[in-house]
Design goal:
The chain is α/β, with parallel strands linked by helices. 36% of the residues lie in helices and 22% in strands. The protein has a single domain, classed as 3-Layer(aba) Sandwich (Rossmann fold). This is Class Ib ribonucleoside-diphosphate reductase assembly flavoprotein NrdI.
Length: 153
């Protein structure tokens, strides 16, 4: 496995920052051991032209809700919908092999709710999560989780 493909959306820069740190970590790991994959990241935004994904990928999605608590009175996703639409486009969902969620633990049950919903919708696992911008320990843990899950596909 030479690379791990990642699609992500970043609203406030937290996910983008995490992906940057994850990519740097993966490059350092690859430089020390060429068997370890690098990260190939693609940001999805309102300006992204939809295309057909030809390789397996992981989706990184934060949780932003506007109304409802996601538990007993519904949920209204906010701002991350374009990533879901991109994954739903043509056969892209078949290439989604896992989801990584982020959020704020202060929101309790809503923490990573969007990622859990994506995993269910795209019939794949929630492979990891991190809070806000994540820590260096999160970067290592998520990288290991991605490698483990990718090796199954």
């Amino acid at each position: 496995m030479e690379k791990i493909n990642v699609l992500y959306i970043s609203i406030e820069g937290n996910t983008k920052n995490f992906i940057k740190n994850l990519s740097e970590y993966a490059k350092n790991e690859h430089d020390q051991d060429e068997q370890k994959p690098v990260i190939n990241a693609k940001e999805i935004s309102e300006q992204t032209d939809f295309s057909n994904e030809t390789d397996n990928f992981f989706a990184f999605v934060p949780t932003y809700l506007d109304g409802g608590n996601g538990i007993d009175n519904g949920v209204k996703e906010l701002m991350t919908n374009v990533l879901g639409e991109y994954i739903h486009y043509n056969n892209n969902a078949r290439k989604c092999i896992g989801v990584v969620g982020s959020g704020n633990r202060n929101f309790n049950e809503q923490y990573c709710l969007t990622a859990r919903r994506y995993a269910k919708a795209f019939n794949c696992d929630l492979v990891a999560d991190f809070e806000l911008r994540g820590t260096s320990r999160d970067v290592t843990r998520v990288y290991e989780a991605l490698m483990n899950e990718a090796s199954k596909h």
